[in-house]
Specification:
Helix content is 86%, strand content 0%. By secondary structure, the protein is mainly alpha-helical. It starts with a helix and ends in a 5-residue tail after the last helix. The mean pLDDT is 83.
């Protein structure tokens, strides 16, 4: 099994474990620490995301340029890139520390009307621990970038899986003993730092990477800086979409509203991971196609193939959430979190389009054509903030989700599809033809599922699980018989053969 396929399979398995653990662990943590401490924890994670923006896009840039150096078999250039990015991230780490210390003192003052003295004290401690993780992690980003550029996905994804399990076991034991959110944050930080250290050891021992400091060509530095600047703008947009709503709600509605919204976003975050698990392994491949022979037909075909595979999983997930999400939230968290269902739908429904097109981001970066996407996303992000504030004041979490939904449709769907078709030459009509096929399949299944719920009501997690299993089986059979193509059937048969050691024709 090749590295890409192994990486994707392990990533999906890891996600399944993460979702299963999360569904069990999250209400357990909420029960142990309470709404206030959980809200502080979520708020701290959102704010630390501001600090991670200091990456400035260099993380993804390093993957592209190291992969390019490997394609061109330029070892000296690769060593210079390693040295350049290590020095750069060391400077960024110092800057992150300074900004983080400022946030520790300033943010509780800004939120003094919605945050008690005890909550402010707790916030400062939790945020400080997360800041240590961020500062330590910055210089070590070069190692994960190198592993990606070398397409060693098996090691990286397997390590992620093992440390994920270690992290949740440690956090659960701490909560059982009686510790609260501070101890949980320390445990999560320790496993995160351990991951970075092991990546570094792998790069040194297995990949034998070297660093060459100094002697950087001005053209190289200029090109990398300009390339990274527009990725940085995209990172700002991603942050605004994923975190600003919680910050707005924290300021105008309080920590309880942040908690409810966090659960709606929780579903969306796993939904997004289902997509990026597949597209994240293709950057070196796209660089190869573009740098060797400018194979735009091959790139467009890859866009459609990967998009269809992502659609198979995302359409099942989204339609299943529409059919059973409300019952799951009621059984999992309780009736008072019902708004999380509507928040999840409002965010995920339009997001399925860009998530099944996100290999296009790698295409734009490989071709160094991502700046126009950055300009558009920046404008849409500002628009999103502008409409989300009044909507959040009036309708709390649902209002904030509506603002994000509108911005997503305008920017990530309408503009980007026109750009892909007109400027890049991607077969967008072919993409939407595939979307129609999946809509024709999923809408009747969802309607039937809702009808069946009225005949066989869901009253427990076991009955919910039975409904979901039947739904997934029906979806899979209909997909296989009426929607899947020869390429997808071959992939599925190959995976089954690997799993059972058989030879299905």
């Amino acid at each position: 099994m090749n590295q890409k396929k192994a990486g994707v399979i392990i990533t999906y398995f890891t996600m399944g474990i993460r979702v299963l653990i999360g569904f069990i662990y999250t209400p357990f943590m909420l029960l142990k620490v309470g709404d206030s401490q959980y809200g502080i924890y979520s708020l701290s994670l959102s704010l630390i995301s501001f600090i991670t923006l200091l990456d400035l896009g260099f993380g993804q840039t390093s993957v592209r340029y190291i992969a390019k150096a490997r394609v061109l078999e330029n070892k000296e250039e690769e060593e210079k890139l390693n040295g350049f990015f290590l020095q750069l991230y060391s400077v960024i780490a110092v800057l992150a520390l300074v900004i983080g210390i400022a946030i520790i003192f300033i943010y509780p003052v800004i939120c003094k009307t919605t945050m008690t003295i005890q909550e402010a004290k707790l916030f400062r401690i939790v945020f400080s621990v997360l800041l240590v993780d961020t500062v330590v992690s910055f210089p070590m980003c070069i190692f994960s970038a190198t592993i990606n550029a070398y397409e060693r996905f098996y090691f990286q994804k397997m390590l992620d899986l093992v440390l994920l399990i270690v992290k949740y076991v440690a956090m659960t034991l701490l909560l059982l003993i009686g510790y609260k959110v501070i101890a949980v944050t320390i445990a999560a930080t320790a496993t995160s730092i351990l991951l970075k250290i092991l990546n570094g050891l792998y790069c040194k021992k297995k990949l034998d990477i070297s660093f060459r400091f100094g002697g950087y060509a001005k053209n190289m530095v200029k090109e990398i800086s300009w390339f990274s600047f527009f990725i940085f703008l995209n990172l700002i947009i991603d942050f605004l979409y994923n975190n600003t709503d919680k910050l707005i709600l924290g300021a105008v509605n309080g920590t309880a509203a942040v908690t409810v919204y966090s659960f709606g976003v929780y579903f969306q975050s796993h939904f997004q991971e289902l997509s990026t698990a597949m597209s994240s392994v293709f950057m070196p491949k796209i660089v190869y196609l573009f740098e060797h022979n400018r194979d735009m037909k091959g790139i467009s075909d890859l866009f459609l193939r990967v998009g269809r595979l992502q659609m198979v999983i995302l359409a099942l997930t989204l339609s299943g959430f529409v059919a059973y999400g409300k019952e799951f939230i009621h059984l999992w968290l309780g009736m008072k979190y019902s708004d999380a269902y509507y928040i999840g739908i409002l965010i995920m429904l339009p997001a399925i389009v860009p998530l099944t097109q996100n290999i296009g981001i790698s295409i734009l970066r490989a071709m160094n054509l991502h700046k126009h996407r950055s300009y558009m996303y920046l404008a849409i992000a500002v628009f999103n903030v502008g409409i989300s504030i009044p909507l959040a004041k009036r309708y709390a979490g649902i209002g904030a989700a509506v603002g994000t939904c509108i911005a997503c449709i305008a920017g990530q769907i309408i503009f980007m599809n026109l750009y892909y078709a007109k400027k890049i030459g991607i077969d967008i009509i072919g993409y939407w033809r595939n979307v129609v096929h999946f809509l024709i399949m999923t809408i009747p299944i969802v309607v039937s599922a809702v009808f069946i719920k009225h005949i066989f009501p869901i009253k427990s997690l076991w009955s919910l699980l039975a409904h979901i299993v039947v739904y997934a089986v029906v979806y899979s059979v209909i997909y296989w018989l009426f929607v899947s193509n020869i390429y997808e059937k071959q992939i599925i048969k190959s995976l089954i053969n690997k799993a059972i050691g058989g030879n299905i024709k």
